[in-house]
Amino acid sequence: MEQVTIFWFRRDLRLEDNAGLYRALKTGRPVLPLFIFDTTILDKLPSRADARVEFIHQEIERLHGELEALGSTLLVRHGNPLEVWKELLREWDVQAVYTNHDYEPSAKDRDAAVAELLSENDTEFRTYKDQVIFEKLEVTKADGDPYVVFTPYSRAWKAKLEEKLVEVEEDPDAKNGQSDKLSFYLKPYPNERYFDHFHQTGSTEIPSLADMGFEPAGIPFPDREVSRELIRNYDRTRDYPAIEGTSRLGLHFRFGTISIREKARRAAKLNGTFLNELIWRDFYAMIMDNFPHVVERSFREKYDQIEWRNNEQEFRAWCAGETGYPIVDAGMRELNTTGYMHNRVRMVTASFLTKHLLIDWRWGEAYFAEKLLDYELASNNGGWQWAAGSGTDAAPYFRIFNPESQLKKFDKELRYVKEWVPEYGTKDYPAPIVDHKMARERCLATYKAALDRG
Ligand SMILES: Cc1cc2nc3c(=O)[nH]c(=O)nc-3n(C[C@H](O)[C@H](O)[C@H](O)COP(=O)(O)OP(=O)(O)OC[C@H]3O[C@@H](n4cnc5c(N)ncnc54)[C@H](O)[C@@H]3O)c2cc1C
């Protein structure tokens, strides 16, 4: 049997600046790249035309092509990861397995089971930080506890970045191309020099989407490139859903088709507000890792006392974008059509569902999880708990978004609304399903009762 080191791709679908892959290649031993289409995830998806599966498949084909051009290949399996690993251990003399950290509770369980299997086989299992800048307990309060409020976390995050500055020769984002200082934590991993350590092997097959029971969704995917101009202007454009003022990189961050270090380098140079959004991403990953109960329950226990109304008819109207509140409806229709919703509108629609309709945030979270191209458990959960008021760093519950004033502020000329709700302003547009003033008072009373009890 041939001896190999396996690099296991998961949410890091790129060859460049990939922490675990770099470490594997650096050993100098032949590295065989692997990807597993995980049936424990795929079988649970409600739609066979899931755009995320199509995207992963497309990126796996790209990686396969890139690896074949380097004289290697990508081994692609479709199955339960633990079973696949048992097969691989029978087929190869696997010396070591390298991969990158995944912080979702189910992924941590999967990795623990694989680690155990590998250890029984005397195979090394090495894992690295790749999808965030700072993870786990790298940024903590002075007493070593994790932060639970974003602003002090973000300050400590930035201070840590500054802790280790290194000289860089050429930085295309620095003014006049001058040499500059860069944080050690944002340095790219220089794989290219090691690419000849890939395992040289014959071509391998990739199962087709149809083989796995899926079909294309027909939704276009956002570009992985973002202009310097957009990032430079981000703080001025990001709040207006009618303009393309945000990066649309969420999907690429989710599957690691771009490097977070590269984008954070750019953000640190070009726009502090954009960097802040990347810090939110680290923050929610860190929260989920340290407080995994958030996946099922409120971060603040008391909020599990809320008596949600959970009216199914109202939930269906919200999902379909037929609430009679134009900014809410525009957002939901944008989501249903494109798999994307602007952040401002995510906040408004989530607040409307939880506060105006008093529907459990987990219902909304699950609907977004099904539809968003950039769906990510940690950020989606963080966003929903923020809107419901049950999360870390939540706005006080008595601050309830008014959908009408949000519309006046962020889509004054109704450009966004008219794009997604063409019948707005005609007799075909439904009346509001709930009166704002009544809903606000009902929400305040319900929350107060729950918190008094809790
Ligand atoms: C209810 C709700 C649900 C959300 N669900 C998700 C989700 O499933 N996946 C997801 O990536 N983001 C989620 N967000 C955060 C945010 O809305 C999206 O990241 C953003 O809209 C994606 O668009 P963009 O790529 O153009 O972002 P940009 O505004 O260009 O921001 C750049 C990147 O920063 C990160 N980011 C920005 N804002 C946040 C934030 N508030 N929290 C965490 N990361 C952030 C994302 O990776 C994003 O791609 C949610 C927010 C809310 C209020």
UniProtKB/TrEMBL annotation:
One of its GO terms (biological process) is nucleobase-containing compound metabolic process. Binds 1 FAD per subunit. It holds the Pfam family DNA_photolyase. FAD binds at Y234, F274, E277, L278, I279, W280, R281, D282, F283, Y284. The keyword Plastid does not apply. The record marks W308, W361, W384 as: Electron transfer via tryptophanyl radical. PANTHER family: CRYPTOCHROME, CRYPTOCHROME CIRCADIAN CLOCK 5 ISOFORM X1. This is Deoxyribodipyrimidine photolyase. It comes from Flavilitoribacter nigricans (strain ATCC 23147 / DSM 23189 / NBRC 102662 / NCIMB 1420 / SS-2).
